[in-house]
Design goal:
17% helix, 174 residues, 11-stranded antiparallel sheet, outer membrane lipoprotein receptor (LolB), chain A, globular, alpha+beta, single chain
Length: 174
């Protein structure tokens, strides 16, 4: 099955899953907001959802909500395992990166994303601050734009083809 068709199937399942979600309060261990992902491929792929991310790269939970606040998907991970539950059932993967790659069809540095959403580079990999007056940095082949950090917005863009753009609007200041 082509990657684009597979991605469309996964995200249709996410959007159609039922059940009401109860959102935990935003704390230092919980990040919540709105997420939009676009993959500039042929054909382009995109999705958006409200999310709650709890825990850390080693162990945690990501809940995606569709329209009307219904739980579209729930991912959980711990050392040595990661699983995602949608209307289509539960799928298990070796780790969080494998789960994300299967769902998105592209690699996204999930461990780094925890720090990027807090407005800082991931400590486990080298990063380069921008020197041209823009606010942000490059890390792991991604540009992390923090120009709208005051409005609680982060944009991360993979600069190799296909370009992947992750836009996040956070619910509360961290």
């Amino acid at each position: 099955m082509r990657r684009g068709v597979r991605l469309a199937c996964v995200w249709m399942a996410l959007a159609s899953a039922g059940g009401c979600a109860v959102r935990p309060p935003v704390t230092p261990d919980v990040i919540a907001g709105h997420l939009a992902v676009r993959v500039d491929d042929e054909p382009p792929r995109a999705f958006s959802a409200t999310f709650t991310l709890a825990g850390n790269p080693a162990a945690g939970e990501l809940t995606l909500e569709g329209p009307l606040g219904t739980t579209a998907a729930r991912a959980r991970w711990a050392p040595g395992m990661a699983e995602i539950e949608t209307a289509e059932g539960r799928r298990t993967h070796a780790d969080l990166d494998a789960l994300a790659e299967q769902a998105l069809g592209e690699r996204v540095p999930m461990a780094a994303l925890f720090d990027w959403l807090r407005g800082r580079p991931w400590a486990a990999a080298p990063s380069q601050p921008w020197t041209d007056g823009r606010v942000g940095f490059e890390q792991l082949g991604w540009q992390v734009d923090l120009a709208d950090w005051g409005q609680r917005r982060v944009v991360a863009r993979r600069i190799t083809a296909p370009v992947v753009t992750v836009r996040v609007r956070l619910e509360a200041e961290l």
